[in-house]
């Protein structure tokens, strides 16, 4: 048309998955040219040729190359903690800190803060198994950890789903009793843990209260911890890391027993820090290191340092109840 020359204005759609950025940019485009403009993709920072679509809009032909990532993947099967200090939220923070891509299968929703569990709403057991099986079919999962499984039906479904898959290393954190002292599992669920889930595990990580529940007698000192760890490892036919932080001595000592092999992991006990989620963070760090290919004793050593650092560098805020604490997992 006279006066309009060779150019017209067209809306430019950059190669960000077919979605235009806010305030779509306008570009002068030669009407008769097949390649109408060149733009820089805001997502990839690549210069891409733009072509006119049948609707008169410019489309980017993306030059992005498909790449295969070598980032290891770990899956947590756990509850959702509203305060994000424990459960799946704590696991994901820990996976990320250690350079591992985290997946989640949520077993329940927990309304809680450090020191108080207000309510637990279990997920439907079938959606728990659906999450697990879909993820294991879709991703090259190298390690899995379990946290709060909430009830017997969910424990059974998790064990059934995990038996269908191969090639992963499994850390079972038998979350039976919360740091606050709340009992989180009924006896039937604990029996299913022992019968169906423990035999699949690479490592079981009970604290002293949970080990007491499994053994039927209290564990009062380090010598008793060694005996208990050996007994549990023999009973369940897998490695057991018995966590001794609840002994409240000057050192937080954990005992690993695997067959004839026994090893202690020790760190300074940090009094006055009222966090929750230390067990979740610890087992998640072990799973992350196993996903990266570490041998079990080395994975535990790294995880012990991570959880000790997370306690030492904790967050603290003032609240209506005084102070509220949270772990700070980082490398």
Structure description:
There is one protein chain. Helices cover 31% and strands 29% of the residues. By secondary structure, it is α/β, with parallel strands linked by helices. The chain has a nine-stranded mixed sheet with strand order 8-7-6-9-10-11-12-13-14. It has a three-stranded antiparallel sheet with strand order 3-4-5, with no helix packed on it. The chain has a two-stranded antiparallel ribbon with strand order 1-2. Helix 1 packs across helix 7, helix 5 (208-215) packs across helix 6 and helix 7 packs across helix 8 (296-312). The N and C termini lie far apart (65 Å).
Topology:
Layout: E1 7-11, E2 26-30, E3 35-40, E4 47-52, E5 58-60, E6 73-81, H1 87-97, E7 101-113, E8 116-122, H2 125-138, E9 143-146, H3 152-163, E10 169-172, H4 187-197, E11 203-204, H5 208-215, H6 222-236, E12 239-243, E13 251-258, E14 261-268, H7 278-291, H8 296-312, E15 315-319, E16 322-326
Parallel strand pairs: 6-7, 6-9, 9-10, 10-11, 11-12
Antiparallel strand pairs: 1-2, 3-4, 4-5, 7-8, 12-13, 13-14, 15-16
Helix pairs in contact: 1-7, 2-3, 3-4, 5-6, 7-8
């Amino acid at each position: 048309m006279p006066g309009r020359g060779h150019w017209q204005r067209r809306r430019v759609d950059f190669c960000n998955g077919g979605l235009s950025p806010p305030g779509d940019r306008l570009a002068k485009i030669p009407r008769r040219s097949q390649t109408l403009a060149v733009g820089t993709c805001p997502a990839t920072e690549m210069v891409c040729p733009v072509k006119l679509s049948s609707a008169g809009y410019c489309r980017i032909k993306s030059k992005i190359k498909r790449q295969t990532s070598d980032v290891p993947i770990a899956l947590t099967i756990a509850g959702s903690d509203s305060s994000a200090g424990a459960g799946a939220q704590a696991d994901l923070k820990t996976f990320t800190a250690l350079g591992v891509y985290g997946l989640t299968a949520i077993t329940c929703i927990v309304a809680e803060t450090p020191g108080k569990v207000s309510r637990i709403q279990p997920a439907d057991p079938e959606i728990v198994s659906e999450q697990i099986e879909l993820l294991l079919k879709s991703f090259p999962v190298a390690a899995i950890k379990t946290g709060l499984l909430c009830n017997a039906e969910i424990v059974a479904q998790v064990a059934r789903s995990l038996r269908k898959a191969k090639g992963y290393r499994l850390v079972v954190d038998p979350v039976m009793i919360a740091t606050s002292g709340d009992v989180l599992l009924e006896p039937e669920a604990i029996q299913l843990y022992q019968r169906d889930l423990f035999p699949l595990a690479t490592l079981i990580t009970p604290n002293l209260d949970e080990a007491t529940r499994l053994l039927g007698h209290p564990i009062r000192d380090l010598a008793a911890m060694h005996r208990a760890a050996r007994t549990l490892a023999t009973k369940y036919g897998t490695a057991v890391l018995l966590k001794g932080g609840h002994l409240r001595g000057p050192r937080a000592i954990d005992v690993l027993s695997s067959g004839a092999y026994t090893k202690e992991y020790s760190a300074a006990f940090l009094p006055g820090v009222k966090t929750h989620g230390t067990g979740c963070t610890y087992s998640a760090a072990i799973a992350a290191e196993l996903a990266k290919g570490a041998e079990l004793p080395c994975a535990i050593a790294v995880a012990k340092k991570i959880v000790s650092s997370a306690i030492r560098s904790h967050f603290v805020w003032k609240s209506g109840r005084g102070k509220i604490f949270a772990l700070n997992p980082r490398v």
